[in-house]
């Protein structure tokens, strides 16, 4: 969950691992990024040029895009305090989110395709309702 923290705290988190954070882009839209400043997580080969970052910007390694990015410090919204310490840990999170999404779709399929005929026997109207509303109505008929 994204929390409001200071830029200094955010930069310290970036040094510890992969951080999910948000900032306003120049066009005003919100960007959610996953970045780091932990050297062991950055796969970058320097070409020999070292530039000084512009004042008032945050530079970070974007782990999803595989490159350095920057944004204006004043446009920082906040960061998730759950810092990932490896790319595989980040992949595990993506896998979990994917599984949750799959289960949600399975439940929706059951709710909107399978249950209507069954629920009509008991007089429960599930047309256009959400799963939690349906379960609330179902609770009247089945003891959990």
Question: What is the gist of this entry?
Answer:
By secondary structure, the chain is of the alpha+beta class.
Structure in words:
The protein has 144 residues and is an alpha+beta fold. The protein folds into 2 domains: 2-85, Roll (SH3 type barrels); 98-139, no CATH class. The chain is 38% helix and 22% strand. The protein has 3 helices and 6 strands. The chain has helices at residues 7-16, 87-122, 131-139, and strands at residues 2-3, 19-24, 30-36, 57-62, 67-72, 76-80. Strands 1-6-2-3-4-5 form a 6-stranded antiparallel sheet, with helices on one face.
Silhouette = elongated
Number of domain modules = 2
The whole-number mean of residue pLDDT values reads 76
User: How many individual helices?
Assistant: 3
- Looking at the chains present, what oligomeric state does this protein adopt? single chain
Q: Spans of 5+ residues with little confidence (pLDDT < 50)?
A: none
CATH topology of the largest domain: SH3 type barrels
Strand order of the largest sheet: 1-6-2-3-4-5
Order of helices and strands: EHEEEEEHH
What is the architecture of the largest domain at the second tier of CATH? Roll
- Quote the beta fraction: 15-25%
Give the distance, in angstroms, between the N- and C-terminal Cα atoms: 31 Å
Judged by helices, strands and strand pairing, the structural class is alpha+beta
Question: Rg, please?
Answer: 23 Å
CATH class identity of the largest domain: Mainly Beta
Task: Compute the number of strand runs.
Answer: 6
Taking the sheet with the most strands, its summary is:
6 strands, antiparallel
**Range of helix content:** 25-40%
């Amino acid at each position: 969950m994204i929390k409001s923290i200071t830029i200094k705290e955010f930069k310290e988190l970036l040094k510890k691992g992969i951080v999910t954070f948000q900032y306003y882009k120049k066009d005003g839209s919100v960007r959610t990024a996953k970045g780091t400043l932990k050297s062991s997580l950055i796969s970058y080969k320097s070409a020999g040029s070292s530039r000084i970052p512009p004042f008032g910007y945050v530079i970070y390694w974007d782990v999803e895009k595989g490159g350095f990015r920057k944004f204006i410090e004043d446009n920082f919204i906040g960061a998730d305090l759950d810092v990932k310490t490896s790319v595989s840990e980040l992949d595990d999170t993506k896998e979990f989110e994917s599984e949750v999404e799959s289960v949600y779709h399975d439940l929706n399929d059951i709710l909107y395709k399978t249950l209507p005929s069954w629920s009509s026997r008991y007089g429960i109207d599930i047309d256009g309702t959400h799963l939690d509303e349906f379960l609330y109505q179902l609770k009247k008929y089945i003891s959990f």
